[in-house]
Amino acid sequence: PRMKETSGWQQVFSSPRLDWVIERVALNAKVLGGALGDHDKMVAAASCSEIILWALQADGNGSEIGVFHLGVLVEALFFVGNQLIATSHTGKIGVWNAVTKHWQIQDVVPINSYDAAGTFLLLGCNNGSIYYVDVQKFPLRMKDNDLLVTELYRDPTEDAVTALSVYLT
């Protein structure tokens, strides 16, 4: 829904009927100058390990961008800029890149916490490390085409990073 001061709440999109219970929802309201042009509003829904992504048009219609599989239970679903991110505590992240229209799954250390700051996705892991990915650049390693996940910090005692809060000025 959206709020219009003169008329109250209005429905802007209704998905087709799904055969599964929606467990997670993510909404990307507007990315100025986004690579999607008219498709700069997106909504994603997840259940178990499946994710459906729609592009929303101004007339209230939506077109399915795709159905993606994380391979494990999706425990967090959110946008960083116009990139869709899905994570699981088991140590998997999935990223849908709006520019390349590419879905990438990456195995990392089991994830306890996450936050996004600007175009950076930060992952707090159970080995005491904080990793980051610049999802706007969507960096891939040349040797194996894996997502480039960089270690930012490692706790010397390897205590799990159970919470992250990042603020960039």
Automatic annotation (TrEMBL):
GO biological process: positive regulation of epidermal growth factor receptor signaling pathway
InterPro entries in the record: SHKBP1/KCTD3 (IPR047876), WD40/YVTN_repeat-like_dom_sf (IPR015943), WD40_repeat_dom_sf (IPR036322)
Source organism of the structure: Eurystomus gularis
Highest taxon of the lineage: Eukaryota
Name under which the protein is recorded: SHKB1 protein
